[in-house]
TrEMBL record:
<feature type="coiled-coil region">
    <location>
        <begin position="1"/>
        <end position="67"/>
    </location>
</feature>
<keyword id="KW-0175">Coiled coil</keyword>
<feature type="coiled-coil region">
    <location>
        <begin position="473"/>
        <end position="500"/>
    </location>
</feature>
<feature type="coiled-coil region">
    <location>
        <begin position="755"/>
        <end position="817"/>
    </location>
</feature>
<protein>
    <submittedName>
        <fullName>Uncharacterized protein</fullName>
    </submittedName>
</protein>
<dbReference type="InterPro" id="IPR040262">
    <property type="entry name" value="At4g38062-like"/>
</dbReference>
<feature type="coiled-coil region">
    <location>
        <begin position="313"/>
        <end position="343"/>
    </location>
</feature>
<feature type="coiled-coil region">
    <location>
        <begin position="382"/>
        <end position="423"/>
    </location>
</feature>
<feature type="coiled-coil region">
    <location>
        <begin position="616"/>
        <end position="657"/>
    </location>
</feature>
<feature type="coiled-coil region">
    <location>
        <begin position="110"/>
        <end position="231"/>
    </location>
</feature>
Length: 933
């Protein structure tokens, strides 16, 4: 029992120790909590101070960058000035050497001049050294000039001396003008030099002030930079812990990646479908255009074939009618000849007429077969064209259905895009709420405050990226709407093309109607009118060419005069610049002398030299440029003179051609008037394209009729000769037989009857000719009406051509928009590549963050396992103490022990629970993302 009491005392002492330790630990925990709260307050204050310091740092860095830029600009200006000084010194030396060489040359040239010129040059040098004495020397020169003029008047008898004196007088006057100009330029340059000195002094003062300020700012900035570096080192240590938490955003980015990829795939599908549809539309448009072109070509071919074949048909019909009339006339003549019983003289005429009739019947049969074949060909071609038109209409209807289906697909895609936008907005709200919860949970931790700031920045970046993507989707949506509008416009164009097709069909019908009307006109008249129009057009072209050549000649003459004036100006400016160069060279010499004399003012003289050198250089450059311009202008003048001569020759040739063409036109006008007079007298309605052959046939028929008339006249003459011979024979043979006399009388009566019949035939044909001339006058009026109809048709064709050109312009616009969309697609692909790179980087960061979180969770699990072990150990200790003490002990001790064990257990359990909560709260995004996925 004593041992038990001792153990109990030991246990009580241990329990009291444990209680005291617990109290100490509770006090320590309370102190730690207070210290933690104080540290949080201090941390917040430090954070505010760091933010202020960061802002100040940014401002100071900007000031430093500005100061650096200013210093760099100043240094660059200094370097440029030093380089310019060096360059100017080198140029000054070169110019000095060049000026010396030029002076030597000029001195050699001046020695050749007369003594008066030597005196003038000496006086000019004295004027350059002593400006005040120049006026007196000029007066002396004027006196010398007056004396020289008197000498010139005296020496007029001698031609050589007079020429020299005149030359010298001109030179002296030029030198006086040069002296005046030199004095003016010296004054102007002295004023410039004074202004430049003042500006240089101001710049030096400003440079010294800026240098002093820059040194002060530099010292202050160095101190600030040292302070900022210390603060940055402390902040970088804090930020290193914050950077580890930034990897939490990778899960969100991965989820966004999947969404973005899905959206990009859908957008690419939309683009591919749109491109396919656009390509199909373009193909169908190209096919439609090619078919329209083929149709127009076929129509043109058919028109040409009609224009070539219809005259043959009309000619054959006219010939058939004419041959029938001739057959009737020949039959009547045959009957009359049979009644007259002229066998001897009528047998040959009958054979000829029979041969003619057979030939005419063969021609008639051939013409009928040819007409039938041509009519069958034309009907076949017309049916073929109708089938092509119906086929094209069916194809257009099928394409309209395809376009409507594509419009339905576009509307479905628009609805899908709107749904995706709503999903993205929901996901953004979820992410924002989750990040705000995580931020509220982690706001108590000391090391997680900067992480939350970085997380906010990252979230803002992600939101901006999402907004960019949403803006891209909006742009794509707008582009799709634009393409939808373009499809509508294409539909409108297709409908307009259908209307144009219908109009073309109507026009074709009208053309066929007009063809029937055009068949009633004469082509020869059109041919002559076209020829006249061509000649008039050629005359107009020639007159326009003459007017153009005249205008070009006038322009070139004006340009030549302008160039001459410019040459004069340039020569005068070149001479003045030469004078200035000489003056500047002399000034350079004076400056060199003053430099040798005044070594103290070297800096000022350097500036003067530089200014003068730059002026001299500029003037020399100007002189060179002017010389080059003079050479070029002279070359241009020579070339333009050659061109003017060529143009004059061309003009003369054109005038000759115009005169020749005018004479041709006058002759043609005369021919046309004569042809019009003849056409008003000629016969028969004929088509526009068949008029030439009809007129030829009429002419041939007239010639043939004249030949028949001539033949009949010859026959009559022959008959008269025969009659006279027969009468003579009868008179001679009257004695022989009375019967023969009777027969001869009968033959003479028959011949007289035949002659009377031929005269009647000739009168009838003359009447027919008069009728045909009346019909030709009617045809002329019809031609005028048909011309008016053709003019209206031409206007309609021009309107159709304008519509086609407008369609081509719209097609070009669509192609330009297509190219612009391709550029936008390329930009989107480039942005896609950039986003893929960003996503790969973010995925890597996410993986690293997940590894870090797994390690952290493993540590938390180990701590929880240790806590559980401690709990089990304490419970076993309590159970042993209870068993050893037994029921003899007071219940108070058991209660206290029980309470103490419960408190310890609860404390340990609460600590483990808090650790588990913290471990579970460190990765809130994983569960949320898993739920969403």
């Amino acid at each position: 029992m004593g041992d038990v009491y001792k153990e109990l005392d030991d246990v009580k002492a241990q329990i009291e120790r444990l209680k005291s330790e617990v109290r100490v630990k509770t006090e320590l925990s309370e102190g730690l909590k207070k210290a933690h709260s104080e540290q949080l307050i201090k941390y917040q204050e430090a954070k505010q101070e760091t933010e202020k310091q960061a802002q100040e740092l940014i401002i100071k860095l900007e000031e430093i960058s500005q100061a650096k830029q200013v210093s760099e600009t100043l240094q660059s200006c200094l370097r440029e000035k030093e380089s310019s000084l060096r360059h100017l010194t080198s140029l000054h030396e070169k110019l000095r050497v060049d000026s010396e060489n030029k002076l030597y040359k000029l001195e050699g040239e001046n020695k050749e001049l007369a003594f008066a010129l030597d005196e003038v040059t000496e006086r000019n040098k004295e004027l350059e050294q002593n400006f005040c004495a120049s006026i007196k020397e000029i007066e002396g020169l004027k006196r010398l000039l007056s004396t020289s003029e008197r000498n010139c008047f005296e020496a007029e008898q001698k031609a050589q001396e007079a020429k020299e004196l005149r030359h010298r007088d001109d030179i002296i006057l030029e030198l006086e003008e040069e002296n005046r100009n030199a004095h003016d330029q010296l004054k102007w340059k002295k004023e410039q030099f004074r202004h430049l000195e003042e500006a240089h002094r101001r710049l030096q003062d400003q440079f010294q002030l800026s240098k002093e300020e820059w040194e002060r700012e530099k010292s202050a900035l160095v101190e600030e930079i040292s302070l900022l570096q210390t603060s940055l080192d402390s902040q970088t240590r804090i930020l290193e812990g914050v950077q580890k938490r930034l990897e939490m955003c990778n899960q969100v980015l991965a989820h966004e990646e999947s969404r973005r990829k899905f959206l990009e795939i859908e957008v690419s599908e939309f683009k591919s479908r749109y491109e396919n549809v656009f390509v199909q539309c373009e193909q169908e448009r190209s096919k439609f255009e090619s078919l329209t072109v083929q149709r127009d070509e076929e129509i043109a071919k058919l028109r040409n074939s009609l224009s070539t074949k219809e005259p043959f048909t009309k000619e054959m019909e006219f010939r058939i009618v004419h041959l029938e009339q001739e057959n009737q006339e020949l039959r009547e003549s045959l009957k009359e000849l049979q009644e007259a019983q002229i066998r001897n003289y009528g047998s040959t005429a009958l054979t000829k007429l029979r041969n003619k009739l057979r030939g005419l019947e063969q021609v008639h049969s051939n013409c009928s077969t040819i007409l039938k074949a041509k009519e069958s060909e034309l009907s076949f071609q017309i049916e073929k064209l109708k089938g092509d038109i119906s086929r094209h209409n069916s194809e257009l209807k099928g394409k309209e259905k395809q376009i409507q289906e594509l419009q339905m697909e576009l509307e479905s895609y628009h609805s899908m895009i709107e749904v995706l936008k709503e999903e993205i907005s929901v996901v953004l709200t979820i992410y924002k709420s989750e990040f705000s919860e995580a931020y509220s949970k982690r706001s108590d931790a000391k090391t997680e405050m900067p992480l939350c700031n970085r997380m906010d920045d990252k979230i803002s970046l992600l939101t901006t990226q999402l907004e960019m993507k949403s803006s891209d989707l909006r742009n794509v949506h707008l582009q799709l709407e634009q393409e939808h509008e373009k499809v509508k416009e294409l539909m409108k164009r297709v409908r307009s093309l259908e209307l144009t097709d219908q109009q073309q069909v109507i026009m074709e019908e009208e053309i066929q109607q007009h063809k029937m009307m055009l068949e009633e006109s004469s082509a020869h008249q059109l041919y002559m009118e076209e020829k006249f129009l061509r000649m008039e057009g050629e005359k107009r072209d020639v007159s326009e060419a003459l007017e153009k050549t005249n205008l070009e000649l006038a322009k070139k003459i004006i340009e030549v005069s302008q160039l001459k004036y410019e040459l004069q100006n340039l020569e005068s400016s070149a001479e003045s610049l030469k004078v200035c160069c000489e003056e500047n060279q002399e000034k350079c010499r004076q400056m060199e002398n003053s430099l040798l004399a005044q070594s103290e003012n070297e800096e000022v003289l350097k500036h003067e030299k530089e200014s003068h050198i730059t002026i001299i250089k500029e003037q020399n450059n100007k002189v060179e440029v002017l010389h080059q311009q003079i050479v070029l202008l002279e070359a241009k003048v020579a070339a333009k003179r050659v061109e003017v001569e060529a143009l004059t020759q061309d003009k003369e040739d054109l005038i000759k051609n115009v005169k020749e063409k005018d004479s041709c036109i006058v002759n043609l006008q005369k021919d046309i008037t004569w042809m019009k007079q003849e056409s008003m007298k000629r016969e028969a309605e004929a088509a526009i394209l068949a008029g030439i052959d009809a007129e030829k046939s009429v002419g041939q028929e007239k010639e043939r009729l004249f030949k028949v008339i001539n033949e009949k006249d010859q026959n009559i003459k022959n008959l008269q000769v025969l009659a006279s011979s027969l009468e003579e024979d009868l008179t001679s043979a009257f004695v022989l037989s009375f019967s023969e006399v009777v027969e001869n009388l009968l033959t003479t009566e028959a011949l007289k009857k035949a002659k009377h019949m031929t005269e009647l035939v000739i009168e009838e044909k003359n009447k027919k000719i008069v009728d045909l001339e009346k019909e030709v006058s009617g045809l002329g009026q019809r031609l005028i009406h048909q011309k008016e109809a053709l003019f209206t048709q031409k206007q309609q064709e021009e309107e159709l051509q304008a519509l086609l050109e407008a369609n081509e312009v719209e097609n070009d616009k669509l192609m330009g928009e297509h190219r612009r969309l391709e550029g936008i697609v390329k930009q989107l692909e480039f942005e896609k590549g950039v986003l893929l790179q960003d996503t790969t980087k973010l995925s890597k960061e996410r993986e690293e963050l997940l590894v870090h979180m797994e390690k952290f969770c493993d540590h938390i699990g180990e701590f929880t396992c240790d806590d559980v072990k401690m709990m089990n150990f304490l419970e076993t200790m309590l159970q042993r103490s209870k068993l050893e003490v037994g029921p003899a002990m007071n219940f108070t001790v058991d209660d206290e022990l029980y309470d103490f064990s419960e408190e310890n257990a609860n404390a340990s359990f609460s600590a483990s629970a808090t650790k588990l909560d913290t471990s579970a709260g460190r990765s809130p995004l994983r569960e949320v993302n898993q739920r969403q996925l």
